[in-house]
Amino acid sequence: MATTSKVLGYLPSDTPPFGRMVLLGFQHVLTMFPATVLCALLMHFDVSTVLTITGFGTIVALLGSKFAINTYIPLYYGSSFSYIAAVVSIIGVLEPDLAFGAVASPESISVVTAGFLVTGVINVLIGLLIRVTGGKKSLDKILPAEVTGSVAIVIGIGLAYTALTMASGTCCGVEANMAPTLKWWLAALITFLAAVIFSVYLQGKGFIGMLPILLAMILGYVVAIPIGLVDFSTIGASGWITVPKIVFPVFNDALTATALIGIGVMAIAT
Fold this sequence. Notes:
- The protein is mainly alpha-helical.
- The protein has a domain at 80-236 and 247-268.
- The chain has helices at residues 18-42, 47-69, 84-94, 106-132, 136-142, 145-168, 182-201, 212-224, 233-237, 256-264.
- It is globular and about 50 Å long.
């Protein structure tokens, strides 16, 4: 008789035991944090501001889902890679000499914020239209998996170069202007392979099978620390509490129309 693997999981309405909830939450933070922070660095945004706004957006979405469908949707609404190309192009025109991770001026960020505002409005309108015209079935007719999947593939291919340079240690001010070194590739490949192996071979093995990312990250640090890839000195040098730098959109800049169209149209991708 054929047997099936038992996969342990929790539904959105479930409340795991406290210890498991902490571990799952920590894994979720590890999953969302690099992408959210990387987006902020690539687009020259202040990281603390991005984390604050995305966290606030997540709370609003959780409360909204609880009100609308009487359950929480366990997702962190972080940054979207869809906007990187448009935002980087606009910031590059306004401030062409910014290095990776440097925060753009409030004036420049205000211009692209106008585009984000339009994106939000378009998303709301599209959501209302979908709801009126039949919900998910109508959405699948307009944006089938072939379309949304292709968009995701294009975004992934566009970020492949960044992923490879980060894995080699030559990206993002880590070891700038240096040839790729074996230690960076070693840590990156071990972490990646560990995540894949844990995801496949721990599936159905109980609660531990739900923590492949957390386990892979721990193993990655175990490898990275002895070979000198982890710098703990910045922990003490950084402030424990940082006030986010909030800016508001402007609509009278020469590039405002470009931001409204170039960034606003990405509502389709998100």
